[in-house]
DNA sequence: CGTACACCCTGGCCGC
DNA sequence: TGCGGCCAGGGTGTAC
């Protein structure tokens, strides 16, 4: 599930729970997720205090009191669940895919669950973060000031691959995934098949606010679903949004009178949903 | 360099 | 009920 809005939602849900708290215990049930966890991962975390929880691209960054940063990526199927004592409901933190359990000093447990194990977790010194291979090639944050029409135009110019594929490239702009790329292109009326180069200029100018809007609205929706989840099972990161085109193959295009059905095509082995009348 | 594709892994769903 | 095929929100390594 996690694209930028979902990761941001997890970040906001996690911050009040763990900021200022100490890892009393860390249970690591697997050596490897997408990459091996660091040697002595649990030992290095135990006793450390969490100073702050931040997000960069689709990564969660837990800054610790020893100058290290706990980096978490949720991959495709990663989830984080907060279990407040006394535990209620079916969540135990002992599920088949509960790979890491962080026990805080107030007995709240933070559970990392990831069936497909495309997620990752590692520890990086704060000073080495920006130059680290995971982070050094990342493009600008789409909700930040560095992301604008001129910047996007420059990044798209000369690129011959489809705009859909190009926007998934985290070197161009971070945070977009398959859903929100489809949704942003739909809103902007830009065909996913158009070359990136042909979007440079006016179309890029038009696209930027749609990217910002679709992400901001999803964060809002996440915030409200987060409130709904409080007191439920504590799970962060899973909520259903209303998507205009994503997953709606065959349904009527919702945004105009074109009377055409939403189409599904495959680009770079991933589904793209769009309206061929509205998006040119 | 940019681009295309296989691949990592599990589970859910659909048709037979 | 079982099985094969296909699909899934991400990212990387390899080959051209």
The best one-word shape is elongated
Query: What ranges have pLDDT less than 50 throughout 5 or more consecutive residues?
Result: 228-232
> If strands are numbered along the chain, what order do they take across the biggest sheet?
1-6-7-5-9
Biggest sheet character: 5 strands, antiparallel
Q: From the 3D structure, determine the CATH topology of the largest domain.
A: Helicase, Ruva Protein, domain 3
- Number of helices, counting only DSSP H or I runs of 4 residues or more: 6
Give the helix/strand class. alpha+beta
Residue share in helix:
25-40%
Strand content: 15-25%
Kindly state the mean pLDDT as a whole number?
Answer: 91
Q: Determine and state the CATH class of the largest domain.
A: Mainly Alpha
| Structural domain tally | 2
Quantity of strands, as a count: 11
Rg calculated over all Cα atoms: 20 Å
Oligomer: single chain
What CATH architecture of the largest domain do you see? Answer: Orthogonal Bundle
| String of helices and strands | HEHEEEEEEEHHHHEEE
Distance between the termini: 28 Å
Protein described:
The chain is α+β, with helices and mostly antiparallel strands. The chain folds into two domains: 4-128, MutM-like, N-terminal (N-terminal domain of MutM-like DNA repair proteins, Alpha-Beta Barrel), CATH 3.20.190; 149-274, Helicase, Ruva Protein, domain 3, CATH 1.10.8. It is 26% helix and 21% strand. The protein contains six helices and eleven strands. The chain has helices spanning 4-18, 41-45, 149-156, 163-168, 178-188, 202-229, and strands at 23-28, 50-56, 59-64, 68-73, 79-83, 98-104, 109-113, 120-125, 235-236, 263-267, 270-274. The strands form three sheets. Strands 1-6-7-5-9 form a five-stranded antiparallel sheet. A hairpin with a 2-residue loop joins strand 2 (50-56) and strand 3. Helix 1 (4-18) packs across helix 6 (202-229), helix 3 packs across helix 6 (202-229) and helix 5 crosses helix 6. The longest helix has 28 residues, at 202-229. The chain starts with a helix and ends in a 6-residue tail after the last strand. The model is unreliable at 228-232 (pLDDT under 50). It binds a DNA duplex (16 and 16 nucleotides) through helix 5.
């Amino acid at each position: 599930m996690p694209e930028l809005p979902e990761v941001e939602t997890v970040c906001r849900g996690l911050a009040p729970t763990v900021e200022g708290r100490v890892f009393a215990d860390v249970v690591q049930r697997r050596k490897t997720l997408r990459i091996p966890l660091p040697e002595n991962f649990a030992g290095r975390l135990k006793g450390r205090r969490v100073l702050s929880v931040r997000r960069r691209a689709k990564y969660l960054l837990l800054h610790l009191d020893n100058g290290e940063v706990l980096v978490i990526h949720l991959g495709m199927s990663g989830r984080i669940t907060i279990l407040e004592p006394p535990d209620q409901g079916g969540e135990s933190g002992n599920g088949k895919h509960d790979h890491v359990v962080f026990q805080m000093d107030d007995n709240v447990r933070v559970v990392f669950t990831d069936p497909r194990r495309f997620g990752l977790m590692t520890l990086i010194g704060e000073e080495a973060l920006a130059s680290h291979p995971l982070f050094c090639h990342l493009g600008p944050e789409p909700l930040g000031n560095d992301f604008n029409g001129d910047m996007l135009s420059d990044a798209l110019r000369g690129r011959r691959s489809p705009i859909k594929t190009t926007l998934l490239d985290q070197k161009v702009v971070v945070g977009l995934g398959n859903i929100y790329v489809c949704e942003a292109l739909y809103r902007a009326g830009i065909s996913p098949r158009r070359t990136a180069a042909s979007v440079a200029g006016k179309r890029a100018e038009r696209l930027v606010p749609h990217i910002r809007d679709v992400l901001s609205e999803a964060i809002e929706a996440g915030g409200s679903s987060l409130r709904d989840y409080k007191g439920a099972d504590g799970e962060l990161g899973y909520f259903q949004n209303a998507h205009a085109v994503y997953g709606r193959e065959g349904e009527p295009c919702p945004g105009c009178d074109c009377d055409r059905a939403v189409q599904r095509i495959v680009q770079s082995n991933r589904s793209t949903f769009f309206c061929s009348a509205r998006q040119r």
